[in-house]
Design brief:
By secondary structure, the chain is an alpha/beta fold. Helices cover about 35% and strands about 25% of the residues. It contains 8 helices and 12 strands. The chain has a 7-stranded parallel β-sheet, sandwiched between helices. Helix 4 runs parallel beside helix 5 and helix 6 runs parallel beside helix 7. It is elongated and about 60 Å long. The relative contact order is 0.16. It binds NADP nicotinamide-adenine-dinucleotide phosphate. The site of NADP nicotinamide-adenine-dinucleotide phosphate has 25 residues, from helix 1.
């Protein structure tokens, strides 16, 4: 039997992190060798202990964790600022990052790509690990060939820090590859309340909804003369993201560059 892939998870008490801890702990080919949290008190210890079958060390310092545990992969599910630093640290230590944290800038992604290539190791950054969401993006990209008028409405829980969502930005980027560039709506349109028409990406509009009760949802609305087309995906819980995390951990082991977006590793 092959050696299990040794994994460290950053953000283990978070909503995504908890699911990732369960996934790794229950996958025979994976081994959870440590978690990185920003605190390490009795409450954190008992919260983590309730999630894993065997005891696992909690680190507050990522470098110390890498030096002691020598992991193959870091799964990061934290915040944009922290996730960026974690990813950079992992690449520097030759640990392959699988990053679900959203909100990285283009410049940060470029820099991390350069670092992955310099180190010749894989790195996967996926704004959305749900397979259905990837299909929604791909179908939207296809539809954009025939519908140049499009509005993206993304809806998330009210604790989300970044807007628009990484998925919405990624969808807009993919649509832009196929869509005839144009501005939308009436040329003289005026916003009575600032922001009413949402964010503008290449003339397309992106609207962000934040409400308690929601998890992660997006609809892409296309319109042309006499018809509309709606492509919608809903994640009802965080378990919906875990098949994508598993696939990414398996795939990152054989990459030697940074891949941004799960769509590039799906058959
Ligand atoms: P969350 O519940 O707020 O969890 C974030 C966790 O990160 C918290 O436990 C937080 O600790 C911890 N954290 C913050 N700074 C840290 C540090 N310096 N070191 C270690 N841990 C730190 O958020 P979530 O809903 O799980 O989302 C996490 C990230 O994943 C977000 O960026 C979100 O947008 C993204 N996300 C991605 C996908 C996807 O499919 N790719 C899906 C859903 C969400 P405290 O509790 O102490 O603050």
């Amino acid at each position: 039997m092959k050696n299990p892939i040794k994994i460290v998870i950053a953000g283990p008490r978070g909503r995504m992190g908890r699911e990732a801890v369960k996934l790794v702990d229950h996958t025979a080919e994976f081994q959870l060798v440590g978690v990185v949290d920003r605190k390490q008190d009795d409450q954190v210890l008992s919260e983590i202990a309730s999630l894993v079958r065997d005891s696992v060390h909690i680190y507050t310092n990522m470098e110390e964790c890498f030096q002691k545990e020598n992991p193959d992969v870091l799964i990061d599910l934290t915040t944009p600022e922290t996730g960026y630093i974690h990813t950079k640290t992992a690449l520097t230590y030759g640990v392959r990052p699988v990053v679900g944290t959203t909100g990285f800038t283009k410049e940060q992604l470029e820099e991390l790509k350069g670092l992955a290539e310099e180190k010749e190791i894989g790195c996967i950054i996926a704004p959305n690990f749900a397979i259905g969401a990837i299909l929604m993006m791909k179908f939207s990209q296809q539809a954009a060939k025939y519908f140049a008028n499009v509005e993206i409405i993304e809806m998330h829980h009210d604790q989300k820090l970044d807007a628009p969502s990484g998925t919405a930005v990624k969808t807009a980027e993919m649509i832009a590859e196929n869509r005839r560039k144009q501005s939308q709506g009436h040329p003289d349109e005026k916003e009575i309340i600032q922001g009413a028409r949402g964010a503008d990406y290449d003339g397309m509009h992106i609207h962000s909804v934040r409400l308690p009760g929601l998890v992660a949802h997006q609809q892409v609305l296309f319109g042309s003369e006499g018809q509309t087309l709606t492509i919608r995906h809903d994640s009802y819980n965080r378990a919906s993201f875990m098949s994508g995390v598993k696939l990414s951990v398996e795939t990152v082991m054989s990459l030697s560059t940074l891949v941004y977006g799960l769509e590039h590793i799906l058959e």
